[in-house]
Amino acid sequence: MASKLSHKLAILYHIRKVQLARVPICCTICISETVGGRMVTEDGKAQRIASRIALSITEGVIPRGTKLRSLRAAASAYRVSKNTIVEAYDRLVARGYIEPRHGAGYYVTGSQTRVEDPVTVRLVEAVDIATLLREQLEHNFTVRLGEGRPPAEWVEGSVLKSHLRNIASGHRGLFEHAYESPIGFEPLRQTLSRLLAERSIGVRPDHILLTLGANHAFDLIIRQYLRPGDAVLTDSPGYYPLFAKLKLAGARMVGVHRGIDGPDPEDLARKAQASGARFFFTQSLAHNPTGSSLTLGRAHDILRIAEKLDLMVVEDDAFGDLMPSSAPRLAALDQLRRVIYIGTFAKILSASLRVGYIAAAPEVTGHLANMKMLTIVNSSGYVERIVHAVLNDGHYRHHLKRLNERVREAQLVAIRILRKLGLQPWIEDGGGYYLWVPLPEGIDDIELARRAARESIFLAPGSVFEIEGTRSQRSFLRLNIAYVDDPVFQDFARREFGVS
């Protein structure tokens, strides 16, 4: 243990010396308890420190063979605990940046064939759907403007933790350890039926199918109704994980232009007729990535076209609980005759609570329930009970009110910062977590994301959200409003966009 600690105590003396010599004192790297006003966990601090050191090694600021500072000195310099430095060094050893030498400390590896961090390399060298999805899960980057979810502290407060404790301790929701109904926990379906009634969507509990989140709902629909080579219509820009599922199924994607008021009806009608597609996937409210929401007139146009051309419409309402119950929804106007409605709690409660649902006509939910049984047998009754308990608790509506306030405040701050950087969001009052931001002329979004990745900044380039044939001539970024205030991103943007 002593030798391990002596090894781990080695790295930061030289790093700190080099950094202080290279940049002004006010710019030296310092990991504090908060970043951009948000609390940072010990694990997050360790990742930030490891990323900074790795970047210095990669750029040659810290030469190969350099002996690094002690744990105590490193902890003092970064203002963290020694355990955090131990964790940071362990990550660097695992990635091949440094190596332990028994009794001598830790050294920057002298090998010419050092193993690079594979995730960072992939994100720097190629930005695509798979790498963006992986980064959403693995959190290798420090600054996370490309993140699809809100910060954990926005959605995982006491409203959720109390129910997790109750379920875990057995004080609530005891049940047999056996398979339950394949369509999901009945009391939760009853609650969802009442919730959807508030949105003017009339659906019985037995016509609601519980899923492992919205992406599982998409997967069931695609497996049931699409075959390789089938044409399928979808928003463009649109939800890139859906694009990946459609590609995996061998479907032929046809993008429908998405405007400020929703999908373009003329483009939808023209492409539906030309392609022979029978399914159209769309997100009506707080659209990912543009932030746009469907207007009532546009909703009527889409349903009229769907009726005329015999289209089934899959409506994603990921932000349903955040949006007004009176907001235009295709499912409310159509009453699930040719609309399949998808909801989820990942964006509102926690991405770790994999619970979503499908509301549809009886024959549709029947088919999809069979597909669910064939593929995963059943969803999680335990997790469904947690969500049911949360929804029926009096604190849930208070949580939604607080979350809405956070979204509005973060949106105002983000827009103000972006204007100072010379950027103007496409839509300013979308109500969700995203801003769709056009880049200055001549800046390529993919190349910008690669340059950002070299500084441990995670950006989501607009090209990933667009389907071939519908891409705009101008480049865009999808920015998460919760992270725009990060000073590291702001400094990067000033340099990239020539803002003083």
TrEMBL record:
Keywords: DNA-binding, Pyridoxal phosphate, Transcription, Transcription regulation. GO terms for molecular function: DNA binding. Residues 43-111 form the HTH gntR-type domain. InterPro entries: Aminotransferase_I/II_large, HTH_trans_reg/aminotransferase, PyrdxlP-dep_Trfase, PyrdxlP-dep_Trfase_major, PyrdxlP-dep_Trfase_small, Tscrpt_reg_HTH_GntR, WH-like_DNA-bd_sf, WH_DNA-bd_sf. PANTHER family: HTH-TYPE TRANSCRIPTIONAL REGULATORY PROTEIN GABR (PTHR46577), TRANSCRIPTIONAL REGULATORY PROTEIN (PTHR46577:SF2). In the C-terminal section; belongs to the class-I pyridoxal-phosphate-dependent aminotransferase family. This is DNA-binding transcriptional MocR family regulator. The lineage of its organism: Bacteria, Pseudomonadati, Pseudomonadota, Alphaproteobacteria, Hyphomicrobiales.
